[in-house]
């Protein structure tokens, strides 16, 4: 299988993984908030109402032992690092930051720009 296709599968896996994780957390928090009703159900029925959690996706087997493959700047050889981020690249080849995304982050970056010093204030 081609490397871009593998990388796409890895990204899709992590996107699905994050989605399921958020969903599971949401269900567990709802159950926690509803603890009293669940306890009453337990007292009435003798067992806790089942929590149906979505199953986490399986790691794509073809992505096991995947290498980064970024170009080494000194050797010119593909990077052999196997510790990959969800984008399919290692910590050295993940690409530059594309800057703040949220309004809060943008405001913070503007705040951190150099300012003229105010003398005697
Ligand atoms: Zn790399």
Q: Any overview of this molecule?
A:
This protein folds into two domains: 1-59; 64-94, no CATH class. It is built from three helices and no strands. It has helices at residues 3-33, 35-45, 103-111. The protein binds zinc ion. Residues 68, 70, 79, 81, 89-90, 92-93 line the site of zinc ion.
Strand content: under 5%
How many strands, which pairing sense, and closed or not: the largest β-sheet?
Answer: none
Shape: flat
Query: What is the number of helical segments per DSSP (H or I, 4+ residues)?
Result: 3
Bound molecules: zinc ion
Strand count: 0
DSSP helix fraction: 40-55%
Q: What is the structural class?
A: mainly alpha
SSE arrangement, N to C? HHH
Which ranges are low-confidence, i.e. pLDDT below 50, for 5 or more consecutive residues? none
Q: What is the first-to-last residue Cα distance?
A: 65 Å
> Any idea what the radius of gyration is?
24 Å
Mean residue pLDDT: 91
- What is the domain tally? 2
Explain briefly what this protein structure is:
This protein is mainly α.
Secondary structure layout:
Elements (H helix, E strand, L loop, with lengths): L2 H31 L1 H11 L57 H9 L10
The structure holds zinc ion.
Zinc ion (ZN) binds next to loops.
List the main descriptive attributes of the protein structure presented here.
single chain, flat, binds zinc ion, mainly alpha, about 40% helix, about 120 residues, 3 helices
């Amino acid at each position: 299988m081609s490397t871009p296709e593998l990388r796409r599968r890895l990204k899709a896996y992590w996107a699905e993984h994050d989605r399921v994780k958020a969903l599971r957390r949401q269900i567990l928090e709802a159950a926690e908030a509803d603890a009293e009703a669940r306890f009453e159900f337990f007292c009435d029925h003798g067992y806790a109402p089942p929590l149906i959690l979505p199953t986490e996706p399986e790691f794509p087997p073809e992505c096991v032992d995947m290498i980064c493959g970024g170009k080494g700047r000194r050797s010119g050889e593909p990077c052999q690092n196997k510790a990959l981020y969800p984008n399919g690249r290692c910590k050295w080849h993940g690409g530059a930051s594309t800057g703040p995304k949220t309004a809060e982050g943008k405001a913070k970056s503007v705040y951190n720009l150099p300012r003229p010093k105010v003398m005697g204030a």
